[in-house]
Amino acid sequence: MTTRVIIVDDQAMVRAGFAALLATQSDIDVVGEAPDGKQGVEVSRSTHPDVVLMDVRMPEMDGLEAARQLLSPPPGVVHRPKVLMLTTFDVDDYVYEALRAGASGFLLKDAPPADLISAVRIVARGEALLAPSVTRRLIADFARQRPAPRRDPALRLQGLTPRETEVLELIARGLSNAEIASSLVLAEQTVKSHIGRVLAKLGLRDRAQAVIFAYESGLVAPGSAP
Questions:
Q1: Nearest to 28 by CA among 110, 128, 123, 127
Q2: What is the pTM of this model?
Q3: How far apart are CA 45 and CA 37, in angstroms?
């Protein structure tokens, strides 16, 4: 099955380079591109891509607002692509908000070509591109500056079993599935099953949103030790 991709970036050379690289893959088809967020939304609505590579900083409409419009479309618009944010910096204030908006993760523009190809495939499968190291270094820093936990997420936690709550906490602390399995003395497949149930019960799209939820619910305190 071919993954349909559009590239939204204000630098023409970046768009051309990414398109040329992805075009070498038989399972990826670049179906459009745009120089800003506003046009990116329009191109996405007309081409229905599976994945949108979205630059964070752009004129006219930035990637954050474009991601919001794509992931929370108006009534009558049913297509919701996966959004992978592209950034020049490994710490960017927009990243946290993009994840809250529903983006599936982010990728540095100077990442190796193989990482870009892998990222598109990972996101297309419905997984989050949020490495444990990124979770530890980035999400906690941003969450530390956010408002106090909201009541609604805390109430939703009550629907989880104690084991599911443990798994969610370890995800938010930046542990991989293998590390969670080792910590809880479980099979890795069992951990995956627990994660699936956590996402379903909380109405979350992927692991990235689970991390955000854990912080906003107060389950994990920003800056606390792993």
A1: 123
A2: 0.71
A3: 12
